[in-house]
Amino acid sequence: MKLSNFKKTVGFTALVVLLPTLAFAYGGQGRSGGQNGPPQVAIEACAGKNIGDMVEFTGRHDDTISATCREKDGQMFAVPENGRGGKGRR
């Protein structure tokens, strides 16, 4: 009888510990801090533009970023020159 209670206690404890861990792993914000996709300012910079058009927009640190309009999954957005904020910053 004692072994049965012990197994139930261990099983319940494991469940209580693992469920929050799994919830965070599959539903948590992850590495991106909750942001999925390009920033809104990069989307707005390419509104009404064509793929390959050059645009500029203001970055998070009030710097001007030169970028090229690209399309992915049906959405247009600006990609800074040389990747994420590389030499496109001024």
What report would you give on this structure?
The protein has helices at 2-27, 40-45; strands at 54-58, 64-72, 75-80. It folds into two domains: 1-30; 37-90, no CATH class. Strand 1 and strand 2 form a beta hairpin. The chain contains two helices and three strands, in the order ααβββ. With 90 residues, it is α+β, with helices and mostly antiparallel strands.
Give me a quick take on this structure:
The chain has about 90 residues and is of the alpha+beta class.
Task: For the structure shown, list the relevant keywords.
single chain, rod-shaped, 3 strands, 22% strand, 90 residues, disordered C terminus, 2 domains, alpha+beta, three-stranded antiparallel sheet
Radius of gyration, in Å, reads 23 Å
Helix share bin: 25-40%
Question: What is the mean pLDDT?
Answer: 77
Number of separate domains: 2
> Which spans have pLDDT < 50 for at least 5 consecutive residues?
85-90
Q: Biggest β-sheet: count, sense, barrel?
A: 3 strands, antiparallel
Strand content: 15-25%
Kindly name the structural category.
alpha+beta
What distance separates the N and C termini?
Answer: 73 Å
Run of helices and strands: HHEEE
Number of strands: 3
Overall geometry comes to rod-shaped
User: How many helix segments?
Assistant: 2
* Order of adjacent strands in the largest pleated sheet: 1-2-3
